[in-house]
Structure formats: structure tokens, C-alpha cells
Amino acid sequence: MADLTTEFVGIKSPNPFWLASAPPTDKEYNVRRAFDAGWGGVVWKTLGLDPHVVNVNGPRYGVLHGGDRRVMGINNIELITDRPLETNLREIKAVKRDYPDRAMIVSLMVPCEEWAWKEILPKVEETGADGIELNFGCPHGMSERGMGSAVGQVPEYIEMVTRWCKQNTRMPVIVKLTPNIADIRKPARAAHAGGADAVSLINTINSITSVDLDQMAPEPTIDGKGTHGGYCGPAVKPIALNMVSEIARDPETAHLPISGIGGVSTWRDVAEFLALGAGTVQVCTAAMTYGFKIVEEMAAGLSEWMDAKGYASIDEVTGRAIPNVTDWQYLNLNYVTKARIDQDACIKCGRCYAACEDTSHQAIAMKPGRVFEVIDEECVACNLCVNVCPVEDCITMEELPTGQTDPRTGKVVAGEYANWTSHPNNPAAKAAE
Amino acid sequence: MTQSELTPGIVSGRLPEDRLESNFSDLHPAYDEHEAAVAADRCYFCYDAPCVTACPTEIDIPLFIRQISTGMDEAAAKTIFEQNILGGMCARVCPTENLCEQACVREAAEGKPVEIGRLQRHATDSLMERNVHPFTRGAPTGKRIAVVGAGPAGLACAHRLAMKGHDVVLFDSRSKAGGLNEFGIASYKTPNDFAQAEVDWLLQIGGIEVELGKRLGEGLSIEDLTDQYDAVFLGIGLAGVNALRAPGEDKEEVRDAVNFIAELRQTSDLSMLPIGRHVVVVGGGMTAVDAAVQSKLLGAEEVTMVYRRGRDRMAASVFEQDLAASKGVRIITHAQPVAVHGNGSVREVEFEYTKDGPNGLEPTGETFRLAADQLFKAIGQRLEGAPAGMMLSDGKITVTGAGRTSVEKVWAGGDCAAGGDDLTVTAVAEGRDAAEDIHAQLMG
């Protein structure tokens, strides 16, 4: 059995599955249920200074549905905790006392002034919490007050606040990053420079999920008006994976621990975040959609997959795919593939044909009897047919062996690796020597 | 005294009213909105979709399903009605398992096709329940066209002609329009008087005058029609029923299945409709199944369907055969009637087993008898009342192209015309296409 225990910036947890700072971790009742269900840790919903904030009394969430009302993404306009600081601190202390083996991280968001951090940090430390997470990410509401993503979008502020925290607490400091920024490496570097023990990402993405066409207002709609909210769930996973990998690949932050967040719903999502450099993952939307029990699937699935692959511990998986994440310019231009259609598996829907004929390279022929065949002379190996085919593995990409002529280009497939940096069409190409 | 399934003879009220009500309610209940959305989501939106090719009326099925999935049920309905104005009835009675759903790529992939028929019903119901007619007439052409027979073919033809701006007189021999939709299809396929509601809805196009109780050969002659109208369309169906050709066929309670079905369809109180304790149906088509299943649903204790060939040759689809079996109908194959016994009324039917020989079906010499209070004949219908001099093929009106007969100015379609399956949807396609051809010829 693979060992799922995790030690992340010195914080131990029985597995890498943490609940993200969000509604599911807003109070003692929920967190106890989460721990009883098997979650390895939680990031307690963001605390602020009293007087505590208030939330809207209308809807807080908007949603993007797939077929059968499958939740693909949720956005929210909920603010940080709307309960008194003392209440939260008391509950955190009680839960940590009863679940000493679980990771208890406390998310914090106070004004960008050192006194505010000096005031709250000792109180959190007193609860016995294992660490803090600085919420520099929420893109709605709090950002209007100069907090959340308003800080996260200014690397200098990130560095400054991170440093204050490091100077005023012995707890590990995790900096939570906003994706609402052009280059995620900048805030990560700033956090690193400020002494952060780790970063966590992504926080939610600025979004309007839908428009109520009767009220002519964005959803969720509160008394006829709506505002942008933070988007999360399976729909944001690709954005999160890229940002996690960017930080893991960046020489300046290459060894900075990462807690991966963004659409994690299954063991496979967990494995992918780990492979791209995460040491733990944080989950919210999947739990909000299905309840806490999903952690059982994550634990069993990840464990089984690790056993099958021979990975003994989480550490062995973390960052494993990073060497294979590169820049476009280093991709091998001598790697030539062609689409291949398995005629036995084909159900003759013709989606590959429509996609290729209408929107790609006219590289699929439709023959009598609805037989679809790839025209190698036209196929650029774009993979669109593979992606739109409803049958798994019916269309695959087959590599042309070295020495064979690509009927499209008329060129013989060269065995050696060659990329854009040395390509004759590249004005900046270095001469091959 | 209350009757039961075991009461001897032919009696009404074998089942309590609530059982009858549930027995004759919708065979395929309507989807609710969410079910429709989930079902629609399964459609792959195939290129040049096989389901469309398989539909005799060539409804753009992927498009209407996509319209359902985007919440536009009425737009979906319009997509359907543009090709098939009786799309509501076809959604209920089409043997989809042999047509669109058989061609569905998900049938090939998983053995579970997209439920096109039920989705079509969902869409068409949405518009028809609001009693909205989606088409308007074109500018008047001044042409007058006679349509004889107000069944699916005639209705489709009349509607398309009216849309084009022609004036149509729609004749039918019965007391109600609708043809087999009204008189010839099992009740549970079209409950709540849907057939009449559909006719009324269809006629909202305007320009169609309905004349009931007028039969070709009885007051209507093809000569008068061709004299008085610019064109004539015949959709007169198959009024004759084939005989068993077995001694004793003239005994009482030996009936045509189509008449039993028509009587059942026109009965407002099914608890008053008598049915035998033992019912035998001879035949292997949809009519045989409709008669047998409905006999069982009325409370007959024992219903047996006897067909002279094997199951694979039955005209009734596998779905229909399974439906019959699930309702408790016993199906005997490879047996043909040789005598009807009884004193006045039928008491027993004698059958002889058959086998497939080199020269066709051969009797084996082995016989058996089935108790029968009623015997329903469902061994096919034939054309009756075709105008003299009109060319026929295999006993049906010869047509070329879009329903042109050998007589000038006369078109034909539906069951009375040669070729094509005798299906509602085929009749609709033929009526529609004949209308287009008539229009092209009159206006060309």
C-alpha cells in the first residue's frame, strides 16, 4: 500500500487531501465532519478582524452546468467568515485539540498594515493551528476594500505582507495566489522573496457565470443586480494546472512547496496536480457538490494508482512531470504523427469528418457506407478528430517511423530531435554547428 | 355480479375501472423537462446523421434534439413539423426501433439508442398543448384540389397543399377524420383523444374543407373529381380485409381485427366493451399485436396470437412482439387455421402446424385446437374501391415519382399506393411529396 502521509512545510497530515479555505471549512461542525470523513487537513475559512464582515442575504453562487446538470464550475460572491473572530478561534482550538494528526491551517485576510497582522497572528498561534495561509486571492468584495486579490495583484505587497508574517509568527506561512494576473510567476517570486514557506494556488477566477435573460442581470442576481464572483470547479482545472507548473518550472521558485488548488475532484486530478509540482491539494467545489465522502474515492484511487506505478510515497510523485513541461520552441518538430481510425470501434457518427472538413484540414474522407478514413496527405496531426470522437481510443495518433516519407510534406521523417530554435524558417535561428 | 377474467363467454367489465385505466394509459409516458434534457444530451449530433436517412419523412433529428437541449422545445417542434406535420402521432406510433433508433449510432455503440421517438413527442407536445399552429398559408392560388381519405397520407397532403395557398376539400368515408390514426391503432399508443386533437390542430392552417361520409364509388367518382378539381389525391387506405379461407369462417364472433380495434377506439367507456375469456388472433403484423394486446388489457384470460410463419417473418417489430409477450399474449408460430368450430358462434379454432419447405410453406399434418370465444382475423388488408381503369401493381395503385397514378390529374399515396411500408410515417411522406408534386405541376 502506497504511503499517503504528507509532510508539507513541516505540517504533517495523513493524506494530501485538504479542504480549501471556503464555506466547507467555515465552522467547527463542518470541519469535524470533514475530519471524520477522512480529510487530511483543512484550511479554515478566512478570518478577518472584528467587526466581522457581512454577506449578502440573496444568492451567493452561480453555476455552469454540463449535461444532466453536472456541475462544471461554480462562482461565488461570499466574503470571508462572517462570524466573530473569537468564535472562530475557539472552534479552531477545539477541533485541533481533538484531531491532532490532521493539518489545521488558518486562512487570514486583514488590512495591508503591519499592526493588523501583528494583532491577529498571536491569536491564531494560540489555537495550536499548524500554519497560516494568506488570502491574497479573493477577487470579489474584499478586493474592493484593498484586500484579497487587490494585494495578490501587486507583487510588492505580497512580499511585504509575507515578510511581516514571517517576522511575527513561528507558524509556516503559505501564500495563496490569485490567478487574476498576467504572469503567475511574479507573485510567486514575491512570496518566495518575502520568505513564504509555500504558495497555494489557484484562488478563484474573476467571472460571470451566466446572465438572467429575463432580468437582464448577471447571476447570482441580488435584487436585480449582480457582480463578478470567483470561479472554481472542474472548469478551472486546466488553468490551475498550468499555473502550478509555471511556478514549479521557474528556476527562482523551483523548490518552493505548492499546495495545488483548482477543480480537484478525483484521484486523477490529485495525481495530476502532484505530478506538476504540488505537495498537497486543496478541494472545495467537489465537496460542495457531492459532500465530504468523495475523499474516500480520492484516497483509494490515488493509493491504487501509486501501487500500480510503483510510487511508494507522495514525495515520489510530486513534480514528476515537470521535466516534461517545456516551452513550445523546444518541441520536436521531427516528431510526425497521423490520425488512425479503428474501423471496428467506429460507430460512424461522422463527428471527426465534420470537425476536420469544416474546421481543420480536410484530412478525413467519408466513403460509401459511412466509412471514415484519414487522408495522410492532408493530416497535420492536430488531434481534433481524437478529441471530438465519442468513442475512447477509436481514433489514435500513430507516429511515423524514422525514414518514412510524410505524404503531406513529402519529407522523410528524420530520426534526430530538431526544434524551432534551429529551424530555417526562424529568423532568430542559431546556425547548426 | 361482477365479472372477472375467468367469467365464461363474452362479457364486459372483466377488470375494475382503475385497472382498465392504467392498462390503456400512455405506453410511453411523456418526459418531463429534465428527462428530456438528459435524453437530448445523449445525441452526438452526427454528421449527415443516419437517423435522418432512416426516417421516411427525413426529419432533421439532430437539429431538433439540439433545440430541445437548449430549452427551445417549440423551435424543435417546428423543425419536426416542417418535414412531418403528423410528427406528434408519428412520435407515438412509429416503430422507431426499426427506423431512426435502429440507425442511431448509439444503438451500434451501446445497444441504447437516443430515444428519438420520446424526444419528438416531447417537442411536438410542447407546441400542440398550447394549440399553436406554426405555419401560415401562402397567397391564394385559385386552385382547388380534392383529397380523398383523411388518414395520414391525405392529411399530410391536404396540409401541404393548403400551405401552398391551394383550396382543399378533404373527403372521408367515416364519421371522423384521422383514418387509421383514429380507428386503427392501439388505444394505449394514442390516449386522450390525441388523434382528433391532432386533426383539429392540423386544420388550423385553413383552406381545408372536410367532407365526411363521402366514399369513392358511393357518391364520389373519380371522373367527377377530376372534372371539378384541378388535381385529385387518393389516400384511401386498404378497406378490405383478407379472409382466412377456412371452413366455419362465417360463424359468429369471427371478426376482422381492424373492426375490433376501431370499436375499441371509439368506445368511451372501456368497462362496457365486451371481450371473450378466450381470444384467438390470427396474423403476425401490427394489427394482430394491437388486437391481441388490447384483448388482454380488457381482461381476457387467455389470448393467443397465431402466425403461419416464423417470428423472423412477422411484420410486427421485435418490440411489438415483446410488448405482446410482456402483456401475457401467447404467440404461436408456424401454424395456420384449418377450421373454425362451434355451434353458431365460434367455440374452437383448429390449426395445423406448418414448416418451411422448398416450395414455400407446407402443412405438417399435425393439428391442434384452441378454445375461442372470439376469433380476430388480422392477416392483411387489401385495396377496395380503386377507380376502374386505374393501373394497379400487386393489388395496389401503381405510382411513379411522387405518387403519380396512371390517370391524369390523379395522385395517390399511403397504404393504397404500391411500394413503401404501410406505416403512418411513410404515408405522411407520400402525401407530403405528392402535394409538392401537385403544386409544382399546377404552378409550373
TrEMBL record, chain A:
One of its GO terms (cellular component) is cytoplasm. Residues 337-369, 370-400 form the 4Fe-4S ferredoxin-type domain. It catalyses: 5,6-dihydrouracil + NAD(+) = uracil + NADH + H(+); 5,6-dihydrothymine + NAD(+) = thymine + NADH + H(+). Keywords: Iron, Iron-sulfur, Metal-binding, Oxidoreductase. Its EC number is 1.3.1.1. SUPFAM superfamilies: 4Fe-4S ferredoxins (SSF54862), FMN-linked oxidoreductases (SSF51395). InterPro entries: 4Fe4S_Fe-S-bd, 4Fe4S_Fe_S_CS, Aldolase_TIM, Dihydroorotate_DH_cat. GO terms for molecular function: dihydropyrimidine dehydrogenase (NAD+) activity; iron-sulfur cluster binding; metal ion binding. PANTHER family: DIHYDROPYRIMIDINE DEHYDROGENASE [NADP(+)] (PTHR43073:SF2). NCBIfam families: PRK08318.1 (NF006183). Heterotetramer of 2 PreA and 2 PreT subunits. Belongs to the dihydropyrimidine dehydrogenase family. Involved in pyrimidine base degradation. Catalyzes physiologically the reduction of uracil to 5,6-dihydrouracil (DHU) by using NADH as a specific cosubstrate. It also catalyzes the reverse reaction and the reduction of thymine to 5,6-dihydrothymine (DHT). This is dihydrouracil dehydrogenase (NAD(+)). It comes from Tranquillimonas rosea.
UniProtKB/TrEMBL annotation, chain B:
InterPro entries: DPD_II, FAD/NAD-bd_sf, FAD/NAD-binding_dom, Helical_ferredxn. It comes from the Bacteria. It catalyses: 5,6-dihydrothymine + NAD(+) = thymine + NADH + H(+); 5,6-dihydrouracil + NAD(+) = uracil + NADH + H(+). Keywords: Oxidoreductase. GO terms for molecular function: dihydropyrimidine dehydrogenase (NAD+) activity; iron-sulfur cluster binding. The keyword Oxidoreductase applies. It is an enzyme of class 1 (oxidoreductase). Pfam families: Fer4_20 (PF14691), Pyr_redox_2 (PF07992). Its EC number is 1.3.1.1. The keyword Oxidoreductase applies. Residues 144-431 form the FAD/NAD(P)-binding domain. Involved in pyrimidine base degradation. Catalyzes physiologically the reduction of uracil to 5,6-dihydrouracil (DHU) by using NADH as a specific cosubstrate. It also catalyzes the reverse reaction and the reduction of thymine to 5,6-dihydrothymine (DHT). Heterotetramer of 2 PreA and 2 PreT subunits. This is dihydrouracil dehydrogenase (NAD(+)).
